[in-house]
Design brief:
The chain is of the alpha+beta class. It is about 30% helix and about 20% strand. Bound molecules: zinc ion. Zinc ion binds next to loops.
Length: about 90
Protein backbone atom coordinates (compact mmCIF):
# COMPACT_ATOMS: atom_id res chain seq x y z
CA UNK A 1 0.00 0.00 0.00
CA UNK A 2 1.23 3.45 -0.88
CA UNK A 3 0.86 5.99 1.95
CA UNK A 4 2.42 9.10 3.40
CA UNK A 5 3.76 8.99 6.96
CA UNK A 6 1.96 11.27 9.44
CA UNK A 7 4.53 12.77 11.80
CA UNK A 8 3.27 12.86 15.39
CA UNK A 9 4.91 14.56 18.33
CA UNK A 10 3.94 16.33 21.55
CA UNK A 11 4.59 20.07 22.07
CA UNK A 12 7.60 19.00 24.17
CA UNK A 13 9.04 17.21 21.12
CA UNK A 14 8.47 13.69 22.44
CA UNK A 15 7.38 11.19 19.78
CA UNK A 16 4.74 8.70 20.97
CA UNK A 17 5.90 5.11 21.30
CA UNK A 18 2.35 3.93 20.86
CA UNK A 19 -1.02 5.52 20.16
CA UNK A 20 -4.01 5.19 22.45
CA UNK A 21 -6.66 5.77 19.81
CA UNK A 22 -7.24 6.94 16.24
CA UNK A 23 -10.69 8.14 15.20
CA UNK A 24 -12.90 10.74 13.54
CA UNK A 25 -14.71 13.70 15.07
CA UNK A 26 -18.23 14.97 14.36
CA UNK A 27 -16.71 17.98 12.55
CA UNK A 28 -14.81 15.70 10.12
CA UNK A 29 -11.34 15.68 11.64
CA UNK A 30 -8.93 12.78 11.97
CA UNK A 31 -8.16 12.56 15.70
CA UNK A 32 -5.20 10.78 17.28
CA UNK A 33 -4.44 10.65 20.97
CA UNK A 34 -1.71 9.19 23.12
CA UNK A 35 -0.07 9.52 26.52
CA UNK A 36 3.11 11.63 26.57
CA UNK A 37 5.52 9.91 28.94
CA UNK A 38 7.63 13.06 29.27
CA UNK A 39 4.79 15.50 30.08
CA UNK A 40 2.67 12.83 31.77
CA UNK A 41 -0.48 14.01 30.00
CA UNK A 42 -2.84 12.99 27.23
CA UNK A 43 -2.03 14.62 23.88
CA UNK A 44 -4.62 15.08 21.13
CA UNK A 45 -3.83 15.86 17.51
CA UNK A 46 -6.60 16.59 15.03
CA UNK A 47 -6.47 17.26 11.33
CA UNK A 48 -9.33 18.13 8.95
CA UNK A 49 -10.10 15.27 6.59
CA UNK A 50 -9.90 17.78 3.71
CA UNK A 51 -6.22 18.34 4.60
CA UNK A 52 -5.70 14.58 4.86
CA UNK A 53 -7.21 14.23 1.40
CA UNK A 54 -4.88 16.89 -0.05
CA UNK A 55 -1.82 15.28 1.54
CA UNK A 56 -2.54 11.80 0.20
CA UNK A 57 0.37 10.66 -1.97
CA UNK A 58 0.16 10.46 -5.73
CA UNK A 59 0.91 7.32 -7.70
CA UNK A 60 4.54 8.43 -8.14
CA UNK A 61 5.08 8.65 -4.34
CA UNK A 62 6.17 5.29 -2.95
CA UNK A 63 6.98 4.40 0.65
CA UNK A 64 10.34 3.02 -0.50
CA UNK A 65 11.16 6.44 -1.97
CA UNK A 66 10.31 8.18 1.31
CA UNK A 67 12.47 5.79 3.32
CA UNK A 68 15.37 6.30 0.90
CA UNK A 69 15.12 10.08 1.44
CA UNK A 70 15.17 9.68 5.20
CA UNK A 71 18.61 10.93 6.31
CA UNK A 72 21.10 8.64 8.00
CA UNK A 73 21.08 10.92 11.05
CA UNK A 74 17.32 10.59 11.46
CA UNK A 75 17.65 6.81 11.26
CA UNK A 76 20.34 6.84 13.96
CA UNK A 77 18.14 9.01 16.20
CA UNK A 78 15.22 6.65 15.69
CA UNK A 79 17.41 3.63 16.38
CA UNK A 80 18.80 5.20 19.58
CA UNK A 81 15.30 6.12 20.73
CA UNK A 82 14.06 2.61 20.06
CA UNK A 83 16.97 1.06 21.96
CA UNK A 84 16.37 3.39 24.94
CA UNK A 85 12.68 2.48 24.87
CA UNK A 86 13.54 -1.18 25.37
CA UNK A 87 16.02 -0.38 28.13
CA UNK A 88 19.30 -0.58 26.20
CA UNK A 89 21.78 2.09 27.35
CA UNK A 90 24.08 3.52 24.67
ZN1 LIG B 1 5.10 15.95 25.95
Amino acid sequence: MNYRHLSLHCDCGEVPERLAEVGFSEDHHLVVHWWCEKCERVVYISKPLTECWLECPGKDHSLDGVLAQWSGEAKEDADAKFLRSIGVAM
